[in-house]
Design brief:
single chain, 2 domains, two-stranded antiparallel sheet, about 30% helix, about 25% strand, elongated
Length: about 130
């Protein structure tokens, strides 16, 4: 199985395509497969609605074209101290300055090389 990360919009579009196919008069589906497929699509929509679209990561199986979602654990994500972007903890730059700002994170857009010095940038006093 080859899995690729996709956006929420791509995920919903793929669910729409699958539902359209299951509702069509296309031949070749095993007995009950269309109904089961529609149930799964409805379940996926319901789960994402309950969790919240911003609280999931979306993937697609590139071999079979099937969409998948995975709830995001809040502890897996941090907020960039500069722009407020939500980024995965392992992709963020961890900045520790215990005397002034404590521990906080930068996204790679704000700190592409991982060397931003918050102490030497006066503009950051308002951000932190």
């Amino acid at each position: 199985m080859a899995i690729e990360k996709i956006t929420y919009e791509e995920y919903m579009k793929k669910l729409d395509e699958l539902e359209k196919r299951y509702r069509s008069d296309e031949k070749g589906f095993p007995e009950g497969a269309k109904e089961k497929g529609l149930e799964i699509c409805a379940k996926f929509r319901r789960e994402v609605a309950e969790i919240g679209s911003d609280n999931c990561e979306y993937y697609i199986d590139t071999i079979y074209g099937l969409p998948m979602h995975k709830p995001i654990k809040p502890e897996d994500y941090v907020e960039c101290a500069h722009c407020g972007a939500r980024v995965r903890r392992e992709e963020a730059v961890d900045y520790k300055h215990h005397l002034v700002y404590g521990e906080h994170y930068h996204c790679r857009d704000c700190d592409p090389k991982g060397v931003w010095d918050c102490v030497s940038h006066d503009v950051d006093m308002d951000v932190h």
